[in-house]
């Protein structure tokens, strides 16, 4: 409660502020309402796994166990597909406006419980509460609102054609934006009239299972959405199930390739949202202070656990010294630590495995001759943390310039001409995103035409909207999520 003071800006001037208003409780004080044990969500109910197996979900900020999660075996995945198949006919036959009402209801219920979900997401995944509160949860709700709007307008998805649902869709998602990736997958599939079997990542299953409570409260017909939890084997069973009409995967390129090998020779429709190694390109005429903020946001947002992170900075030689020196100053004031503290900029690394991978790649950068800078920064004693890290003297052949690190590590290269910037930016097997910082509109147009990336941001970075399709080229995958294009990926066109 704030201290009482006179204000003239209240509803009636002269009244005491503290008598009338109280500050909202800080988001980190919301009760995440976690259960000690989470079962599978099949046929609209929480059910014990037939496998009889469970695994633990850990809080990466302090390594404490948060909950026990059911591990779905092949029989559980099969039960989930059967329940989705049973629900499909009635769900697909509902008028679009009725399906839209369910999606609106889901979006509103998520908004009602936004604080609770933000805290749960932060506890389970390690991301700063500021991000789960201001980005993950609102964006997830926005995806349901947006697709609710489409549900009764499907004749405009492909004008002149008839768009029909595909059937039961199998979906597997990663741990970096657990609730948001779930929304990206579920909302278009449901709006189009499909039913779903979805597997969240093994380190971040909790918000999906909490989301199942929202589906129950929204009275979504049983079986339309089913959640099976577990690791790679469960994922392979979801992707490989013979009754899946389509599979949609978001995760690493390595696993994406394994799934494509597994499904080679079948007529399964597929979309793959895979890894990235984006170039963030700064020209000498860019607004440098803004660019520095964009670089920081591009690589340190969500601890760098972002598929489209601007992990390769390409900076024009005339301003390289200035940009690097400003960057060093800027990252000295980034706060690393407790993700539940609303002042934290970088929270915890999602898992011990991911921390090990970041450390190995950073060590390879040092070994291969790049120059590392880490600001002085005290990390918490327990939990998985890594400081913001810059590498200069990076060459194109270094592993840190080629491989996705998926952590708060920026590799900095320089260039002299526009052609060299384009050549270097495209010199990667990936093609998910890129950023361009320049004052010249014509240069932005040229760069966005010649960069082989699904998204090119100009004088900004990491901006998303449900109406804007997102997806990659080359080893970053195929298919789009968001917008009309995202809906087409869940439709059969007649
Ligand atoms: P991952 O590939 O290890 O795991 C992703 C999911 O696949 C998890 O749910 C996992 O359990 C499951 N899985 C593992 N082996 C499987 C198998 N053989 N068959 C089926 N499923 C299997 O990736 P991750 O470490 O969880 O996520 C990070 C990766 O995701 C990064 O490469 C990142 O770039 C990518 N990503 C891409 C996008 C995008 O839109 N392009 C978005 C977010 C993350």
Global mean pLDDT: 95
Please name the CATH architecture of the largest domain: 3-Layer(aba) Sandwich
Give the proportion of residues in helices.
25-40%
Supply the helix-strand structural class: alpha/beta
- Ligand set: nicotinamide-adenine-dinucleotide
Sheet with most strands: 7 strands, mixed
Count the helices. How many? 16
- What's the N-to-C terminus distance? 60 Å
**Into which percentage range does the β-strand content fall?**
15-25%
Q: Rough shape?
A: globular
Strand order, largest beta sheet: 14-15-16-13-12-17-18
Radius of gyration: 23 Å
Uncertain residue ranges: 1-12
Layout: helices, strands, pairs:
Layout: H1 17-20, E1 37-38, E2 40-42, E3 45-47, E4 53-59, E5 64-71, H2 74-93, H3 96-112, H4 114-125, H5 129-150, E6 163-165, E7 168-172, H6 178-191, E8 195-199, H7 206-217, E9 225-227, H8 232-240, E10 246-250, H9 253-263, E11 269-273, E12 279-282, H10 288-300, E13 312-316, H11 317-332, H12 352-367, E14 371-373, E15 389-392, H13 399-402, E16 409-415, H14 418-426, E17 433-437, H15 441-450, E18 455-458, E19 477-478, H16 483-488, E20 491-493
Parallel strand pairs: 1-5, 7-8, 7-10, 8-9, 10-11, 12-13, 12-17, 13-16, 15-16, 17-18
Antiparallel strand pairs: 2-3, 4-5, 6-20, 11-19, 14-15
Helix pairs in contact: 3-5, 4-5, 5-6, 10-11
Structure, described:
- The protein has 494 residues and is an alpha/beta fold.
- It has 2 domains: 37-274 and 473-493, Aldehyde Dehydrogenase, Chain A, domain 1, CATH 3.40.605.10; 279-458, Aldehyde Dehydrogenase, Chain A, domain 2 (3-Layer(aba) Sandwich), CATH 3.40.309.10.
- Helices cover 39% and strands 17% of the residues.
- It is built from 16 helices and 20 strands.
- The chain has helices spanning 17-20, 74-93, 96-112, 114-125, 129-150, 178-191, 206-217, 232-240, 253-263, 288-300, 317-332, 352-367, 399-402, 418-426, 441-450, 483-488; strands at residues 37-38, 40-42, 45-47, 53-59, 64-71, 163-165, 168-172, 195-199, 225-227, 246-250, 269-273, 279-282, 312-316, 371-373, 389-392, 409-415, 433-437, 455-458, 477-478, 491-493.
- The chain has a 7-stranded mixed sheet, sandwiched between helices. A 6-stranded mixed sheet has the order 9-8-7-10-11-19, sandwiched between helices.
- Strand 7, helix 6 (178-191) and strand 8 form a beta-alpha-beta unit.
- The longest helix is centred in the first third of the chain and has 22 residues, at 129-150.
- The protein is globular and about 65 Å long.
- Mean pLDDT is 95; it is low at 1-12.
- Residues 172-176, 199, 201-202, 231-232, 235-236, 239, 250-252, 255, 258-259, 273-276, 307, 404, 406, 432, 472, 476-477 line the site of nicotinamide-adenine-dinucleotide.
């Amino acid at each position: 409660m704030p201290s009482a003071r006179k204000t003239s800006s209240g509803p009636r001037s002269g009244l005491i502020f503290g008598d009338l208003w109280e500050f909202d409780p800080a988001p980190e004080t919301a009760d995440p309402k976690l259960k000690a044990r989470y079962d599978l969500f099949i046929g609209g109910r929480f059910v014990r796994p037939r496998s009889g197996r469970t695994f633990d979900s850990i809080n990466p900020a302090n390594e404490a166990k948060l909950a026990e999660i059911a591990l779905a075996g092949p029989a559980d995945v099969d039960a989930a597909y059967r329940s989705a198949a049973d629900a499909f006919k009635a769900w697909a036959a509902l008028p679009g406006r009725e399906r839209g009402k369910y999606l609106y209801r889901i979006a509103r219920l998520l908004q009602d419980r936004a604080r609770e979900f933000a805290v749960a997401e932060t506890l389970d995944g390690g991301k700063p509460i500021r991000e789960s509160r201001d980005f993950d949860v609102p964006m997830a709700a926005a995806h349901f609102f947006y697709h609710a709007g489409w549900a009764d307008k499907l004749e405009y998805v492909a004008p002149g054609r008839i768009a029909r649902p595909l059937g039961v869709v199998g979906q597997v998602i990663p741990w970096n934006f657990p609730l948001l990736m779930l929304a990206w997958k579920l909302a278009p599939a449901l709006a189009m009239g499909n039913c779903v079997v979805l597997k969240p990542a093994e380190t971040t299953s909790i918000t999906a299972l909490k989301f199942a409570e929202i589906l129950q409260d929204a009275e979504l017909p049983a079986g339309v959405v089913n959640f099976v939890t577990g690791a790679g084997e469960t994922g392979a069973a979801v992707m490989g199930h013979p009754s899946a009409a389509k599979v949609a995967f978001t995760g690493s390129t390595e696993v994406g390739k394994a799934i494509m090998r597994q499904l080679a020779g079948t007529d399964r429709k597929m979309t793959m949202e895979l890894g990235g190694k984006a170039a963030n390109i700064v020209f000498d005429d860019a607004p440098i202070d803004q660019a520095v903020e964009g670089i920081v946001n591009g690589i340190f947002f969500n601890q760098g656990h972002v598929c489209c992170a601007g992990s390769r900075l390409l900076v024009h030689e005339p301003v390289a010294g200035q940009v690097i020196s400003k960057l060093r100053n800027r990252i000295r004031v980034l706060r690393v630590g407790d993700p539940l503290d609303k002042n934290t900029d970088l929270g915890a690394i999602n898992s011990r495995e991911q921390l090990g991978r970041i450390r190995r790649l950073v060590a390879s950068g040092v070994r291969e001759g790049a120059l590392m800078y880490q600001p002085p920064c005290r990390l918490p004693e327990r939990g998985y943390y890594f400081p913001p890290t810059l590498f200069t003297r990076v060459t194109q052949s270094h592993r840190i310039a080629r491989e996705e690190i998926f952590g708060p590590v920026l590799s900095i290269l320089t260039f002299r001409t526009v052609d060299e910037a384009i050549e270097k930016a495209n010199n990667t097997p990936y093609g998910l995103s890129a950023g361009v910082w320049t004052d010249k509109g014509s240069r932005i147009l040229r760069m966005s035409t010649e960069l082989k990336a699904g998204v090119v941001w100009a004088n900004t970075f990491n901006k998303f909207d449900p109406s804007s399709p997102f997806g990659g080229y080359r080893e970053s995958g195929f298919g789009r999520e968001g917008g009309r294009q995202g809906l087409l990926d869940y439709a059969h066109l007649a």
